[in-house]
Structure formats: C-alpha cells, structure tokens
User: Fold these one by one.
Assistant:
Number 1:
Amino acid sequence: MTTIVPSASDSRDFDPSPAASPSPSHWNLPLAPPNSTSPPQLPAPPLGMSCITMVTGALSNLMALVIVGRARAGKRLRGTRARPYLQLASALLLHDLGAHLIPGALAMKLHARQRRGLGIGPAAGGPLCQLFGACMVYFGLSPLLLGGAMAMERCLGISRPLLHARVATPGHARAAVLMLCGLALLLALVPVLDGTGGVRYVPQFPGTWCFLPLHANGTRGSTGLGLLFSSLGLAALGLSLLCNTLSGAALLQRRLGTSRGGGDGGGGRRRAGWSSGSATSSLSESSRSRTSRWLDIEMMSQLAAITVVSCLCWSPFLIIIMTSLLRLHRGSGHEEGGAERLVLLGLRLASWNQVLDPWVYILLRRAVLKRAGRILHLQHSNPRRTPEATDRSVKPGAERRATEI
C-alpha cells in the first residue's frame, strides 16, 4: 500500500475557515484540551519522493511478474510440483502491484485536494473515503493470506510429497487464491455495504488516507472488524513462520540423511551400472534429484525472505491497530497525543512490504543461488582464493576462449 502524507509545509496551504477545515474528530484524532499544545506533526516525505517510491515499486513488481511468468512457461517446470507455488507467487505479486497503483492513486488525489485546502471533505466517510478504506483493508490482508498459503503449500510439498502430489494441483491453487481473496474482499466491503452506518471508514491523520476508527468515534462493529483484520494478519504471519520452520527442518533432515547414506547408495549404483541402460537411468535419476533439490532451495529461500519481510513490515502496524482497538474497547478514553504518529509510522513501514517483495524473486532466483553456491563452495575448499580467482575457476573454458581470441 502506498500512502502519501503531506509535509509540514503543506499545512500552510490549508484554508483556515471552519467550512474548509474539518474538526479534529473527522481525522479520528483525540481532542486536545484548549490550553494544551497539539503534538508536532511527523515529518513526511515530499510528494515527489512518494511518487518515485510508487513508480519504483510498480516497476519492480512488473519485473518480478516477468521472471515468475518465464518460470511458469519453462519446459522444466511443466507438470512439476512447482506450478502451484508459482501460481500463488503470481497472485501475490499481482496484489502487490495493485497495492501500489490503486491506493497510491487515491492517496495522490487526496494529497492534491488537501494542498488546495479541500481535504477529504467536511462529510467524513464519503464515497472516496469508503473506497480508499476498502482498498487499504483488501490490499493489506490478501498478500498476508497468500503468503500463508504459499508457506503451507511448501511445507506440504517438502514434508509430505505424495500427499502434495494429490492435493496441491494447479486447480486447487487457483481455488485457494479465489477463496482467500474473496475473504479479504468480504471484510473490506463490510463498511461499504453496511446500510445502518454503524461500521464506516473514517479519515486518518493527517487526512490523506482512510481506515477503520482507531482512537475515537468507533462502534462495536468497527472495533470488531478492526480486531478481525489485525488478528487474521497476525495469524497469517504466525502460520508462515511455523510452516517455514517445519519445511527448513525437513530439508535439513533430508540433507543429513543423504550425506550419511551417500556412500553406499553411490557404490550400489556404480556396481549396478555396468550396462549402458542402467548407467543412463542412474544419470537421469541423479539429474532429477539435483533439479528437485535446487527447486526446494529456491522456493524455500524465497519463502523465508518473504516471511521475514512481511513480519518486519506488517507486525508493528497490526500490533498497533490491535492495541489501539483493545484500549478503545475497554473504554480507557482517548489515547495520548503520540498515538496517531505511531499509526502513521506503522503504515509507512507496512507500505515497504510491497516494495521489497518483488526483489525477493528478482534476487533469489535459481541461477543466482547456484552461482552463489559455487562461489561459496570454492571459497570454502580454498580460502586463500580471491573472488577474481574464484570467478576464473567457475568458467575456465570461457577464460581460455577469451585468451585465444
């Protein structure tokens, strides 16, 4: 999600008249006593920097979608167990791209209105605010749910491959995407479709984004929906951590078992491989095993990086939402003056999740991982080698051809 927040200098452009300046309750902020001074606004990046971030994130997601699309179209992956994972990854990247473009465009529109002294308008919770709030909930929750589904799919594929072959089909992956996105969309549309007006999205400080009430003016319905949003997000992050831990343990156990039994298995294959047919079969089996191992390493590396990025970016925002709503539900009154700044900081941190996600697929590709593995292996076998010597040893034939030319 890309939200654009005006800088402190933008406050000079506001119309000070009561008609153009909504009351503090419209921003869902605590009302300060007349004698108190309001807390200073959090320094915000200029509009140009926010636009650069949005464009960079969108281009990064497009690059990652091209990489994942080429992997799905590759001959080596047709009919393999990697197809459900790649379908889920494509859905995740598409939602990250939408989170950059749609909420980012709405935030830019609100920023432009605020610079003209209009803001969201005196009628807090209008159609524009409802659309913005629904986009924030949908594009915030759906990537977290898809990340949890990806972690479950990999955990099943590594620990229970036979069950994975029967259950994790491309059709089931598409059904899972539709179900999870439908759940996120249903939660996002509850305030929009609520005819009673009990659950509504409201403008949030400093007036350039909308969300459920977090500090004041909230009903039981809005508080419950906000708690459900944060609980589902935290549960998806916890599920991803658990599944990735189990998958990593299964890979490590498999690696240790292969190392212990490698000698006997290799000798048996050599003794049984006197004929050309058995030798060809042994080589083919070894090649398939090596390809499968690199597939597992590639997908687990990507999943681990995505989980770490999601936890670092989303956990603060979700925890702040949950604690604010629980404090509001207990009726402890308005929060202290810095609460809105914490929410804004959490939102900015969460918006970086969609910027960093595509670089996981760009950098942690199989070709990059293989090259890094070769370099680390050569460095470990001969620590005195320099990186230049390592690069020359990786491709000696290319070096000789270049010398001959």
Number 2:
Amino acid sequence: MDRVSAFSRFLQAGRAPVDLTSVMANSHAILLVAAVTLAAIFIGTAEAKKNNVCPKWYKDCNPRKPGCETRVERDVNNCGDCRYKCKTLPYVWTKCVGGRCRYTCKAGRGDCDKKIWRNGCETNIKNDAKNCGSCGKPCKQVGNAVTSCLNGKCRNPVCKSGYANCDKNIWSNGCETRVAKDVNNCGACSNVCKQVANAVTSCRNGKCGTPVCKAGWSNCDANWENGCETPTSEDPANCGACSNVCTQYPNAVTPCRSGTCDYGSITCKAGFNNCNSAVMAPDGCETENLSDANNCGACYNVCKQVANAVTSCQNGKCGEPVCKAGWSNCDANWENGCETPTSEDPANCGACSNVCTQYPNAVTPCRSGSCDYGNITCKAGFNNCNSAVMAPDGCETENLSDANNCGACYNVCQQVANAVTSCQNGKCGEPVCKAGWSNCDANWENGCETPTSEDPANCGACSNVCTQYPNAVTPCRSGSCDYGNITCKAGFNNCNSAVMAPDGCETENLSDANNCGACYNVCPKTLEGSEVSCSQGQCNEQCPFGQVPSGNKCVTVGFELQTNGE
C-alpha cells in the first residue's frame, strides 16, 4: 500500500508545470515508477479480493480472473452489481452510469406510451402524424384530407380522393367540395357539367355523365344540342319511349296518355271483349264471349264451376255441368259438384250405389270402377291371422294391443319373470315389473329379479340401501326400511342403548364374561383364586392349572395332600 501512496504523490506532483527536458531525462524513472505502481495496485486488489473487499465501483464478477476485474460503474452487463445486465430495447441507447442503467431513445424515435421498459421507443416521431417531432404533438387534421408528418415536421393537408379545396380555405373547412359528384365542380374545381333542355346532368366519379331526360321527355334524335326534345308522355309515335308506336288493334283507336298507349279506351266489336287487362294488352279485344265459360256473354261472367266437372257456354249462356271421367254426382247436389270418385269408392264402385262386399275390419278396394276382391286389405290395427285368404270373419286379429300378435300375426311379446309384458300401438313395450319387484341389474333375461319389498340392499327401489349398523340387521318390509325392528346378529347384543346407536350391537355375548349370553349377565365367581370365562354364551368357572377346588377356594394339589398328611 506504500507503493500506491507513492504513486499517488507522484501524480499529484505531475499537476505542477513540467519541464519537458527534465521529463525526457527522467522518462526511464517515470516508467519504472508507473510499473511499480500498477503492480502495487494489482497486488493491492488481489489482497482486497483475498480479504473479500473490492475498491468502490469494482467487483469480482469473474471467479476465473484474479482481483476485482469488473468496473460495475459503467459495465452494461454488470451495472451496479455482478450479472445485473441492462435491458436491450427496440430503438434505445442503453448505458450504465454510476452503477445504474440509463435508457435514451435513438434519433427519430420516442417513448410516447411511457412504457420504455416494455416496448422501447415504439413511436417513429419522424412520420407519425399523431406524434410529429415529439410525443403528444399531433399534426392538425381537416375534413376530407390527410395531414402527414415528414422528418418530424407536419406537411400541408392533402385532399382525399374525390374531394378538393375549391374555396382555398383548407385550414378552416378542409377539402369541402366533393368533386366526385358535384356537377358544378366535376373532377376539378369550377368544372361545370353542361346543362341541356328537359334533362338532368350528373357527375359520377369525377366525370360528367350523359344527361338523363326528365320524366315524359326523351332524346329521340340523339342530338344533345337540343336536349330531350320529344314529349314521350303524349306522342303516339314515341309513346313512353322513342319509336314506341301505339298499335292500332282491330276495331280500336289507341291514344297515348301519360306515356302509355290507352288500350283501356278501345271499343271492341260485337262478340268480343278486352278482359285480360285494365288497359289494352297486345292481344287487343282477346276474349270471345259467346263460348268462353269464364267470360260467358261478358267479361268475368264465369259459368258456375263445380268440383270434378266441366261447364260450357253456348251463345253467351251457361249450360249444365258434365262430370269428368271417374266422378259422379251421386247426391244430386250441384253445389258440391261431382263429389263421388266412382273409380275408387267401394260404396259407389263404377256407378252410384254399387257397393263392394266388405268383411269385418277389412277394406275391399274399388279400382278403375271395379271391386278388386283379390286385393282386400285389413284396416289399421288388424290382421287376418287364421286364413290364407279372406274368411267370413275378415281381419279377426287386433294387433295393436294383443301381446300374442303384436304388430303382426304370431309376433309374441317376450315374457319375463315377475313382470307384465304389453303390446302398445303394435310394438312390444318394455316389461313392467310387478309390485315389489324391480330389474336392478338392467338385464331383462332374468326379468325383475330383485324383491324390492324385502331386500335391504334395494329397499323400495334399486340401490336404496337400508342403513346397517355394526353386527346388526335392518330389515326391509313392504319396500320401507324398518328401523324400529333392527335385530342383532347371532352372538351380539345392543347393551349400551335403548335404541340402536351408531355402534350397533356392540356387545359380543358368546365369550364376554360380563355379558355372557345376554346383556349384563356377569359370570359369578364362587371359588377364591378361580378363573371365570364365558364360552358360547355359557359361564364357566375353573381353578388354575395344577389346582383343584377345596371348600370355597382353589388349592394346589400337593399342598392339599401335605395338609391332609399332617
């Protein structure tokens, strides 16, 4: 440490004016002192490392190198302390100053969201119109224009497509003129679309469109200089449109009114009418009213139409209806027309009142006006099960609810144990368990196998288990758990409670000498020194091995003999 002090004094002495000649003369001495001093510093830092003490702003961050080699005052990878690395962030200059990380935005960038630690200097303030030149400095926006930022300075607004600044006051009202549609400024300011007679001129997409004639006018000569010169609302030669000449129909004069040929004012010849339009259609007076049943004698005078019949008009008068083939007026009432389909009605087969023979629960069809006895069919819900052909009893078997003929002849619904099987709407229904029985295993092969009226594991319903107590049985009676008649299993008693407690029949009475065979039945001890036990609920008293009863106690056999010898 004395060498360091000497070097320090040497440096302080160097602040005084220096004689270069003297310095050159003593250069070897200076280099020698510097070398010695650096060695002293190295030795000193090594000693400091040895004593776990580093000079200020130095740390031993690399154990493989001797001494305090890292200057944490300025090292961005060890800023303030070993391995404390300053973040690398987008568009950010990172420095370590005084042992603390310092972050500065690069030129043209700004931390406008105040989240430099998260996303760095996210804003390009050179071209961001909302942050032009610096954060929070937006370029002024005006209507129908775009104001941009270039190199950090706001540029003049540029009109959007289809708009223009025709009043030269852009900062006040922006690009106020829509040159895409304005006929007075079409495509550009002051570009006025040409106006012509009886027409409306439009501007579309900044271009003057072809004039559009007003209602009732047309440009029939294709010359826009004289505008829409033709009154198509009243010109019979151009009625409603150019060259649309009103046709003169037979026996008619056709005027042009409001652009339409007035065919409704045509006068028709005798025997004809214009019935298909309020105004004259191209077919003129199209309706012949002497034989047309829909316009018999006059328009819309319809001869009465009845079901399944044809009605005729003769000399402008309606005749009687004629039934169509396969139909008849069997009730003699023309109000419902030819109401009877004699081609297929078994009660009127081929003619009114011609009845096909019918069998019970069967239908004999009428086909093409003839009774078809070879194709008799059963009514819904019935079958002919007792005969290959139709017998007098007809379709005798009801198949909607008959479990032996369910839906078809001889289709017997399966019968299972303790259940009733039914036929419903021609389909075998799922078996229904009898009272007190259930199909708890979901297997109909063994039927309703579980007696839920008495099974404690399925009491009243499948999986409804009666609560069981230790060494006790809770019975199931009539589908209900009978907790008032719980019984103890053989060899056990409920001795600690008048009613069944959670411990159930807690007392074992086959070998318990205090409850032998019954609660509180304590086996008596009559001999002194004897052993009392309970076996199979019976009390036993016996002397220990090698002893026998003598009087009211147990004595050793040898002792008894010796006593008797004396």
Number 3:
Amino acid sequence: MLSLSGAHADAFLLERISDGLIGLGSDHGILYMNEQAKKLLNIAGEEMTSGHTLGDLLDQDSALFMQNKISKASVQHETLHFEMEMKQPSVKWLSIHLYPADTGTTILLRDNTSRKLVESSIENQNKKLMLLSEAANHILSKREPGELLDALFRELSEYLDLDVYFNYMINDSKGCLELMNYQGISREDAQDMHFLDLGEAVCGTVARDRERIIAENIDFSPDPKVSFIKGQGIKAYACHPLISYGKLIGTLSFGSRSRTNFTEDELDLLQTLCNQVAITLDRTLLILELTKKKEEAERASSAKSDFLSMMSHELRTPLNSIIGFAQILSDDCGEPVSFRQSEKVGKILNSSRHLLNLINDLLDLVKIEAGKPILNKESLRVESFIHNTLKMILPQARAKNIRIYDQTQSCSHIHVKADPTRINQILLNLLENAVKYSEAGGKIIISADIEDNKLKISVADSGFGIPEDLHEHIFEPFYRIFNQEKNIEGTGIGLTLVKQLIMQMGGTIGINSEPGSGSCFWFTLPISRESILPIEEYTITESQLIDLCSLSGKVLYIDDNRNDLALLETIFEKQENVRLISSADGKEGVGIAADRFPDLILLDIHMPDFHGLKVVEKLKNDAVTCDIPIIAISADSSRETINRARECGVSDYLTKPIDIKLLLKKIGEYL
C-alpha cells in the first residue's frame, strides 16, 4: 500500500505519474495533490492549500459521494474502485481507486471520458438497433395503422423522450390532409386540427413540399406555422412526408415537451422509420381496402345465395303438386282413365319434368356464376356411371328407334375424380341431345379413351351436324341452332351448364362436327389414383316398389303447404294399414308427435312460423320422440340445408317435386 507524507514526498517522482494523485490525512484533509489531479478536477494551483478537504474543491453532490466512498474504504480496510461523473466541460468521467491506510488515504484518478463516450455510443447504437428491431416487429405484426403507430410511438417515446405524434393521411375526396392517428393531445384539440389544407401549418407544408421540417426551440419561434404545436407546449418537432413508391400518402410527425432539439442521429433514425412506415401504411391500407371489397362481395354472394335458396323453394313447391297429382292420375289403377286422358296426363308430366329440369339447370348455372361450390368430388368407376346413364336414356332412344352402342369397355375399370350426380347429369345431357337431334332409326356411339393421362368420353350421333363457324357458340347461354326450324325443344343452357361443371371438375369439353355427318361431343376428366369400390347410383326397378298394403303403422306429415298435404293424403287414402296424420303447423306437429307417437315423421323444412330444423331439434331433445325416424321432404335442394338437416338428426332427405315411387320405397324402409 502506498503511504505519503506531505513533508517527505518525492515531489519529482509524484509529478511524473500520468494519473492524478491525491494524499489525504487521517482527518481527510488534503496532504498532497499532483498537477494531473488538479487538471482532472479543474483546480488552479494557487487554489490548492494544505488543510483543504475535497468538499472545499468539489461540488456538493460529488463531495458527498466521495466522502461516503472514503469512509467505506477506511472502515472496511479495502481498496475501492468506482467511476464518477464530473460536472465540468473538460472531463466528464473519472475512474477512481481508493487505497486506505492507518495514516490516511491515497486516491488515484484517471480520465475515463473517452472510454465512457465509446461505451455510450455503443449503448446508443444497441438501443437504436433494438428500437429498429421492435419497429420491424410492429410493422410486420400490426394489421391496423393505428395499432402500428401507437406501438411504434411507445418504443420511440422512451428512447427519445417524445410526448406527441400526429399521423395525417391524404383524403383524396376532400383534397386535403385528415388526422387519422395521434397521441399526446386532447380529443378536442385534435378535432380542431382534424383537416389541414396543403400548405397549412407544419404538416400541410410538409405534404405540399414533400420535404421534412424540423422545428427546434419552438418556445422562441415567431413562425405562425408552429402556433398550434407551440400552444401544446411542444419544444422540438420533426414532421416527415410519407412517400411510398413515389406517391405521397400522408405525414408522420413527433414532438417533445422536455427537449429543445434532436441530434442528427436521432433525426436519421426517425427518417428511417418513417420511410418504412410509409410503405407499410400504403400496403396496409391497400389490404384493408381489398378486405372491405372482399367482405362486400361475400355479403352480395350470401344475399344471392339466399335468393337462390328462396327461388328454388318457391319454384319447386307448386311443381310438387302438379307432378305429384299427375303421377297419381297416371298410376292409379283403382280409377282407370281413358287413353286420351292418359295421353294428356303424360304431357302434363313431361312438361312439368321439363320445367323442373329447366329450373334446376338455371339455378345451377347461377350458383356457378355466384362462385358457390356445387360439387362433391369422389373417386368413380367409369363403368358405374356409364351403365346408370345408359339405363336412363334407353327409353327415349327406343321411342325413336335409335340404337346406342357402348364402346367404353376398354376403360370401364378406370376411376375418375368427379361428382357422381353431376357426371350423370353431364352425360345424360349429351345423350339426350344426341337422341333429340338424331333422325328416327339413327345411331349413337359412346366411347372412352385415355389421352394425356385423362379420361376422354365421346358421344357421337348420326344427326344433322353443325357448321364449324357455329362451334364456338354452342356453349354460350341460351344459344339454339336448329330448335326453331326443326321444332325441337330446348333452352340453350344445358351445354353451358355442362361446360361449367366439367371445368369445375378439372376437365375440358369440345365438339367435332360438320353438316350432314353428325356431331361428336367429347369431354375429359382427371384420372383418380385411388382404387376404391364404385359408388352405386340408386335406381328403382319395378321389383323394388313397395306395396303399402303389406305395411302398417302411423305416419305424421308436417307441411304448411295445403296442396302438398292433399297430395300425401291422396297417396295414403287407400292404404288401410298405414294411417296418415297431417299437420300444417310445425309447433302443432311437435305436440301431435308427443301425443300420438307415430312410427315415422315426414317433415317440410321451410315453414313460416316454426322452421323444420327447429321441429327436428324439439323432437330429438324429447325422450318420448327422440327415436322416431324423420324423412325431410323439402323444395330446398341446397347442399348446406341437406347437411344441416342430417346434422340435426334427419334420417333421410327427399327434394320436391317428389318421386312417389321413391317416397314409397323410403317409407317402406322405416315402417
């Protein structure tokens, strides 16, 4: 340990030391101080006299701090090292070592300002990097402009002592700036400055000139442009134009009430952040605008879907009575009709079914145009849907003595990815057209091949043929070629719908034809990699018809449509062992089910006072009626309604107009 005695110190040696050196006596009085110590403490030589204490030479805070450290070192008899910030311009930081001894304390001083400045610079850079990192996180994670700017301001305010920020955006419709986001002022004051003309105040000037404005020492500024922020107590203010890809979108400014200016580094930081914010806000506003348009389109699509559902129900409901009673007249062996009457009934049935097909095609076409999915793709074996469709078209072909040749055997084992209902609809449409446009005694060939890893199905007829210049119009809505001149029924939407359905299933469709040589319509479908059992389509044969006379039980039918009630009553009136109970009200029907406990419930879905699905819910939640099977009979054929009905507990779902034979078969399955 170094110990000094003022009288015997080797002055020459001590003055050669590069560090400041101070010797204190046991009473803490100064015994010695070299020139370097005086320089570090900013003390003139003549001011230093023996017997002074550090308290006489330092400011009060520094002297008290030093005295506490010296006392601690003396009591603990340990060397202490610490740093102290000085309140003088030349030396900012001192590194101090205390060496206590019985006779006093030796103090070594070293100028540590340069190192502290480097450390401070590194610390500031780290803070700046952290701030930029946090800002980047906010820019990437915040979806709303207000959330982004509020989060960014919280980070900046702590780092730069900021108190306010203003974000103005260009209002194109008004041709001015509009205050969109802010913090640090009252709502009333913000309302006063909600709109700014270009060139008005600081932000309006920045927007007009597209250049940053820095206002410092605002307390003493006579510039009228800063009058508002001056009235808010803001002393330093920086306003930046927000420019994204050359386009001005607004301004972003920051202000402080506690500081009078910003450093160049701080201004560079603000500029960097504002540049990033400009691009982000532009992108965010674009996304918000697109989201808004998407939501509007979805609402419009939803309204269109609701309208389609309503129209489907309203159009199918009257057809149910027409087709239903026509079927009864046609099949009622108990009350035979004359040949002429039977012929007229047949025309009613044919026209009604034609109208039903037209309604279905129109609704499907509108659904596709509305972007509403109508497909349920499955892996289908070619043989299954070819076989089913041919069975359906054979009666029409036989009526015109047209022979149909099936040349699809080579591809019968192939599976394709398609909707089973829609693929039958497509193929049936092409076959019906082939029959319709072929002369009596003609022929139709249906064939299948593999091309470019896709299944190609062709339907060729021996009809009139179509000129090549008309091929491009064939698939246009409501386009008809020979219908008027050859008196052939048609609406011109069948092929349009076929094309849309095939495209939705990932295929293509085309035509090869010339006048006098018939036509060949072909379409392709993606081949499925799956190998599953074919999904059998349901077809009714005469042997499958159910004779209700062999059945017994009670059936409850709930439907608000009086004509449909009358239709079912007519079907059941001659069945002695099957009793039909009718109700035109859903709530009443629930009560009847609980009191009479039927074996089967037939239920309409869309009833005005008590919705059919609510009826199902009531029945399934009641221990008395929960096990009664329910068959829904509705004009609503939408997949959403059918799925909802099944989820609620409906056992089966039939769509109006009802096929009486199918209805009887279903009833037979549950009685």
